[in-house]
Amino acid sequence: AKPEPALTFIVGLDRGDFSNVSLNAFSGVLHSCVGRLNDSPSVRAQVATRSLTRGEAVRMAKAEKESYIVYLELRAENFSRETDIYGNPNNVFIQYSVLAPITAKTATQGNTYRDRNKGINLPSSTGTGDYYLNQAAQRAAERILKHFHVPVRR
Fold first, then answer.
1. CA atoms within 13 A of residue 79's CA, in its CB half-sphere
2. Structure pTM?
3. How far is CA 53 from the centre of its chain?
């Protein structure tokens, strides 16, 4: 029998104002974060059933008894959001917040960025989204695990 995980997470992503971004890119970010969280045997993470706004993430956290809600959002460093993913993908970063169950208080939060030394978009090895954005999502998961003092497998 598999032991019960010490921590459980539900991971959701806000599609925000990036209406021109493919669903593959969003899916890649979401699944990269969940996959990295699940690399730890003491963690169970799952994907939220739909896109979340910040308000929906807070309501979901308040309704949860055990699972933390991980709220991911793609953000742009300037105001031209519509062109950043394809026009200048280096300006896009991932903002993450982890909301505690019941209280919805922020347990941890931060930003992770694409590798700025790589100016081109590469498809991910799974064919889902942008390789460098997916790497940023994995780094967000690693920071979340570090916050909770969960060892990260390399």
1. 0
2. 0.84
3. 13
Q: Is the pLDDT at 41 greater than 80, yes or no?
A: yes
The confidence band for 117, taking pLDDT boundaries of 50, 70 and 90, is low
With residue 121 as reference, give the H or E element that holds it.
none
What does residue 89 show for φ and ψ, rounded to 5 degrees? -65, -15
Q: In whole angstroms, what is the distance from residue 145 CA to residue 37 CA?
A: 7
pLDDT of 62 over the 90 cut:
yes
What's 98's DSSP letter?
A: E
Please report which confidence band the pLDDT of residue 67 belongs to, taking 50, 70 and 90 as the band edges.
Answer: very high
Q: How far apart are the first and last CA of the chain?
A: 25
- DSSP at 21: S
d(Cα 140, Cα 150) in Å, to the nearest integer? 14
47: tokens are 């994907």
